[in-house]
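Ticket 4471: requesting a sanity check on a complex prediction with zinc ion. Repro inputs:
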Amino acid sequence: MTTDSPPRIRERRDDLVVLRPQGLYCPPGDFYIDPWRPVDRAVITHAHGDHARMGHGHYLSAAPGEGVLRTRLGPIDLQSLAYGESIVHHGVRLSLHPAGHVLGSAQIRLEHEGRVWVASGDYKFMTGPDVDPTCPPFEPVRCDVFITESTFGLPIYRWRPQREIFAAIDAWWRSNVDNERASVLFCYAFGKAQRVLAGIDASIGPVFCHGAVEPLNRAYREAGVALPATTLVSEVTDKSLFRRGLVLAPPSAAGSTWMRRFGDYSDAFASGWMLLRGARRRRGLDRGFVLSDHADWPGLHAAIAASGAERVIVTHGQVPVMVRWLSENGLDAEAFETEYGDEAEGLAEPSADPAATEAGT
Ligand SMILES: [Zn+2]
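Returned structure tokens:
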């Protein structure tokens, strides 16, 4: 991987989104997108902590994400828009469109004096049977300038169909039931945990959730997403039930005293980073399931191509690689230096050096 930094944005007079110390800023609209410092008006792409932060005066988000946003941020001044609904603010027409990342995730479309920009936040690009049942799929939105993530922007990142991943999780769980030991699956508490719940075969045994996961399950159910029944781990009195159970817990629970109640258990991690065998091995996990809520390398290119944009700005993840690839393919590509990405997939990126990743399964 190259170590030279990508070309920094050359701000142009009529840019609809520019970089400010507080975050991405829309000058004609006078609002921010997913700002990392407190501002008066914030438009939020989704409720992950690196995009939705506390302390803003006013929030705007997609209506399906209202519950998860309030669950995570508490009482906030929040206005929501249905997907596709638009408002005009200081002459900027703003609308939100599904990003397919987690419940309520949105791409932000901005239109001003004939120019259209789309800030996509985090997204995944899935089609056919691979569509995530917990949120509507990514909707391609035509634009002049597309602002994209690049969390998994390396050619090694190519996801297997999700049915194969869920079949592998089910098989691991069944085998643990046969051996009378608990199945503890670490996964990010918001988004990934609910996608796992929607994808597994809940007839195998009871499903238990950590206290960080259960409030999000509730918000998903309230938003109309069908999830199997779950029980809060701390409410279980008969601990023998764990031996047949699947336990969903955030990565922070690994190695904590909270784990003692399960007795004999097998542990696993569901994350895109599990493509890197070293990431699993370093954590001493029994299994790693490669399941990501971000676009893989082909998915990033498909989403960018579907936008029709001739200018692309990359915000986080594998920025230099993506900028270079786009430039080589004839696009006007640049980077914004943002503070996104530290909550992606529930893990810090294990290694930026693809030569050290042992990928290939
Ligand atoms: Zn995210």
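Notes from triage: The chain has two domains: 18-157+293-356, 162-289. Leaving this open until the requester confirms.
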